[in-house]
Amino acid sequence: MPHDQIWNELASASLVAIPTHWYEASSLVLDEGFMVGTPALASNLGVFPEKVRHGLDGLLVPPADTAAWRTALQRLHDQPGLVASLRANVRPPLTAEAHTAQVLALYASLK
Predict the structure, then answer these.
(1) What is the pTM of this model?
(2) Which of 78, 96, 111 is nearest to 35 (CA)?
(3) Domain segments of the chain as ranges
């Protein structure tokens, strides 16, 4: 796929599925999906519970629980309005500047 089409394809996807089994400090895939308004289906592990608001802008499921993943995917299929509802609540990720300001404010509050 040509590089200039990647953002359009990501924006037109129903969701970004991130079935990680490991703790992640951050997720570029999640941030990129949220940047274009695409909701997430992600493991309830690591950074994802901090960034994904379960039932609002994505769904969180236990990692490595294939039955839970199957149930979540079936729910998304059976409730066609759910993806649109999740999409409507996606917030863009923080910019690097905003994130840095939050971290500096946190450190300042610990003095």
Answers:
(1) 0.86
(2) 96
(3) 3-109
